[in-house]
């Protein structure tokens, strides 16, 4: 069967520079921006040109390669790697994949030095490490998609929030991966995509990439999810995440918590799909996950049109935390984890 996925690559490594799909312009325009400095990469992450936890990590890993490629000695090179990892870590606070990818790049660099690599070999090997992060993400998402699809049956209605698709990752996505695999196998699933205020990742990105692949997708406003559930049209919810705490609390795009509460009220299972790199055993509970707050303008004049009075007080958290008791299962590349999360997430890493 031919592959259903026809998505655009969010991050392309092109001979020493990143060609980055500017996701702010989708679905209207497909524009790749050349990023040639670590500052370009930092700004692209901060301003959501690239977004989605795994894609941010991939872009940052290439940012480290870019920042260190002009070094003239191995000492200078290692210093550049460490400095740029520190700098890129300040671009956004919530998605742990960013810090995971940067730590992996730093650890790889230390290892190359310890092994006595020449400067040229250090540079080559670090570039390969970033490429491996991207390639492994694709394989990981395929595995997540297979596990997720095992939970769904022909003609089920599945609601998703934000964009945890190919655009947010190397390929396939996490929460959207099962829809691509279902399409390949001729299994029909009806997807409801929340538009996802205020930046509309659901409308601009999820609806776009699923529609491109021929998946049956219906766009709804966030405040319609309850009604759609009450009509019996939703059999399951699946979302991605930016960080899962050790106790199974889940940080994801603002509005996810409301969807989880609605799902519970309607007796609908609420699944979270993510790679192991999104699970942060060093953060004990959701209360310790740093939640990014974004500029007021995203709410008062999003997409260039003023929709609120000037000077009004605004609160704009980009993420919320869904307590673990609302989570039916966490779908990873190693299988589906259920409660008790504290114990079962730890076991997953010991396997
Ligand atoms: O602010 P964003 O667009 O980066 O938020 C993205 C999300 O919340 C995604 O659901 C999450 O990163 C998982 S992506 C596989």
TrEMBL record:
Sites where the protein binds substrate: 51-53, 92, 201, 252-253
Enzyme class: isomerase
Keyword Amino-acid biosynthesis annotated: yes
Coiled coil: none
Catalytic reactions on record: 5-(methylsulfanyl)-alpha-D-ribose 1-phosphate = 5-(methylsulfanyl)-D-ribulose 1-phosphate
Keywords: Amino-acid biosynthesis, Isomerase, Methionine biosynthesis
Record field: transmembrane: none
One GO molecular-function entry: S-methyl-5-thioribose-1-phosphate isomerase activity
Top-level taxon: Bacteria
EC number: 5.3.1.23
InterPro entries: IF-2B-related (IPR000649), IF-M1Pi (IPR005251), IF_2B-like_C (IPR042529), Initiation_fac_2B_a/b/d (IPR011559), M1Pi_N (IPR027363), NagB/RpiA_transferase-like (IPR037171)
Biological process, per Gene Ontology: L-methionine salvage from methylthioadenosine
List of catalytic residues: 242
NCBIfam families: eIF-2B_rel, PRK05720.1, salvage_mtnA
Record-stated family: Belongs to the EIF-2B alpha/beta/delta subunits family. MtnA subfamily.
PANTHER family (alphabetical): METHYLTHIORIBOSE-1-PHOSPHATE ISOMERASE
Its biological purpose: Catalyzes the interconversion of methylthioribose-1-phosphate (MTR-1-P) into methylthioribulose-1-phosphate (MTRu-1-P).
Stated name of the protein: Methylthioribose-1-phosphate isomerase
Organism from which the protein derives: Paenibacillus montaniterrae
Lineage: Bacteria, Bacillati, Bacillota, Bacilli, Bacillales
Gene: mtnA1
């Amino acid at each position: 069967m031919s592959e259903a996925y026809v998505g655009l690559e969010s991050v392309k490594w092109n001979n020493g520079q990143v060609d980055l799909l500017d996701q702010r312009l989708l679905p209207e325009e497909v524009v790749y921006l050349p990023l040639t400095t670590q500052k370009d990469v930092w700004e692209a992450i901060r301003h959501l040109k690239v977004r989605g936890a795994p894609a941010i990590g991939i872009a940052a890993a290439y940012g480290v390669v870019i920042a260190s490629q002009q070094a003239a000695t191995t000492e200078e090179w290692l210093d550049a790697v460490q400095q740029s990892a520190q700098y890129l870590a300040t671009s956004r606070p919530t998605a742990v994949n960013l810090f995971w990818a940067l730590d992996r790049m730093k650890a790889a660099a230390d290892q190359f030095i310890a092994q006595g690599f020449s400067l040229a070999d250090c540079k080559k090997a670090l570039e390969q490490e970033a490429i491996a992060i991207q390639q492994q993400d694709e394989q990981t998402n395929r595995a997540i998609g297979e596990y997720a699809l095992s939970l769904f049956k022909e003609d089920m209605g599945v609601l998703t929030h934000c964009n945890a698709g190919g655009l947010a990752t190397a390929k396939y996505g996490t929460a959207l991966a099962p829809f691509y695999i279902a399409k390949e196998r001729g299994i029909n699933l009806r997807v409801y995509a929340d538009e996802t205020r205020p930046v509309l990742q659901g409308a601009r990105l999820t609806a776009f990439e699923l529609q491109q692949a021929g998946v049956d997708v219906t766009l709804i406003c966030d405040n319609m999810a309850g009604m759609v559930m009450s009509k019996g049209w939703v059999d399951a919810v699946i979302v991605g995440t930016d960080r899962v705490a050790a106790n199974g609390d889940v940080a994801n795009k603002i509005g996810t918590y409301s969807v989880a509460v609605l799902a519970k009220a309607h007796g609908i299972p609420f699944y979270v799909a993510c790679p192991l790199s999104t699970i942060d055993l060093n953060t004990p509970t959701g209360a310790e996950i740093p939640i990014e707050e974004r500029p007021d303008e995203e709410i008062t004049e999003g997409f260039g049109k003023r929709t609120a009075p000037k000077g009004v007080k605004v609160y704009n958290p980009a993420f919320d935390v869904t307590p673990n008791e609302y989570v039916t299962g966490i779908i990873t590349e190693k299988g589906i984890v259920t409660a008790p999360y504290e114990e079962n997430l730890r076991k997953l890493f010991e396997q």
